[in-house]
Fold this sequence. Notes:
- The protein is α+β, with helices and mostly antiparallel strands and 393 residues long.
- The protein has 14 helices and twelve strands.
- It has helices at residues 13-19, 79-93, 122-127, 135-149, 157-166, 170-179, 198-205, 208-223, 263-284, 291-307, 318-345, 351-354, 360-375, 383-391; strands at residues 33-37, 44-51, 57-62, 65-66, 70-74, 101-105, 110-114, 120-121, 227-229, 238-243, 246-251, 258-260.
- It has a five-stranded antiparallel sheet, sandwiched between helices.
- It starts with 12 loop residues before the first helix and ends with a helix.
- The chain binds adenosine-5'-triphosphate and magnesium ion.
- Magnesium ion is lined by residues 41, 43, 232, 253, 255.
- Residues 38-44, 46, 48, 58, 60, 99, 113-117, 121, 252-253, 255 line the site of adenosine-5'-triphosphate.
Amino acid sequence: xxxxxxxxxxxxxxxxxxxxxxxxxxxxxxxxxxxxxxxxxxxxxxxxxxxxxxxxxxxxxxxxxxxxxxxxxxxxxxxxxxxxxxxxxxxxxxxxxxxxxxxxxxxxxxxxxxxxxxxxxxxxxxxxxxxxxxxxxxxxxxxxxxxxxxxxxxxxxxxxxxxxxxxxxxxxxxxxxxxxxxxxxxxxxxxxxxxxxxxxxxxxxxxxxxxxxxxxxxxxxxxxxxxxxxxxxxxxxxxxxxxxxxxxxxxxxxxxxxxxxxxxxxxxxxxxxxxxxxxxxxxxxxxxxxxxxxxxxxxxxxxxxxxxxxxxxxxxxxxxxxxxxxxxxxxxxxxxxxxxxxxxxxxxxxxxxxxxxxxxxxxxxxxxxxxxxxxxxxxxxxxxxxxxxxxxx
Length: 393
Ligand SMILES: Nc1ncnc2c1ncn2[C@@H]1O[C@H](COP(=O)(O)OP(=O)(O)OP(=O)(O)O)[C@@H](O)[C@H]1O
Ligand SMILES: [Mg+2]
């Protein structure tokens, strides 16, 4: 397979950025611009271009295949269009939570954005024993503002139908439907696990109660078109750091974005919070990471409630808001559990657990908590109840 558009190599980046008008008015020669590749994900290429004097930029390009696999694993580059669309929507309502996007080149599936190299990926910070800082508040605000603006509360019915149509992302949704919401519960060649949880991996495959609850979450993911979601909001999709004494949090990589259930992003994030907590507890004793669930929810709920009086369709009354928020909360706990389980018995695992001297005890604990969250999500009314559940393990 070959690409029918321009695939950028490091040496092309200075000329490319110049063509895209990124250096208009600046007299650099191409040789004054240093370029290096920082791709460390699976799917795409990311380059950083730094002019000798001037603003540095990041360029992210989607290839027509999975970067780490090559042309033998084709994948539509329109994932970059989904990423650009999500950034555009968030930029209108919560610009401080994402990188500044300077350009989207739809012909070549390339985004040019703010260079975040001065920040660090949250998962790395946590693995080194650091804390969340303001990440959970940023996630709550990001999800609330994006969800409200792209739901039937923030948009007219006709605009919403157009948004749903333009935001379909079938290839990446299928990855989630398979990897998170099916494969761990059936025998699949992708699945693998640490030997200490082999018994649980087998039990979860035969667990009919768990299977039906995952089917419910899977169907909500497929058919619950509530609002535009990020779609991959784990602790590796967040960068944090300090700029001039002010804490900065940036949520990035929304290429899985589509119109889905509002609780999905909160749940994926919480699944990763709980795994980070499990790691920290094993290394240093009980950590305060569980509090991050309350922090995220508080930010989300207060932001969503503040926006509620501005809803376009006032047939949705205040009592319905309470019911809607309860549904988001319950869905989110279910997705948190599903995320934990798939990160332990599914295809893609987490460095949080894999890098422990003995991954066994933490892996087992997280896997047990994951099932509880899925099965009992409707019986856990608030963050305190979740904390109590986690502390029982
Ligand atoms: N704007 C940016 N500035 C600086 N570095 C960045 C930027 N965007 C991405 N990176 C770096 O490139 C890495 C990969 O980026 P990203 O996660 O967006 O790519 P991906 O191929 O979609 O990854 P994945 O396979 O995890 O989905 C990040 O972990 C980060 O180190
Ligand atoms: Mg990605």
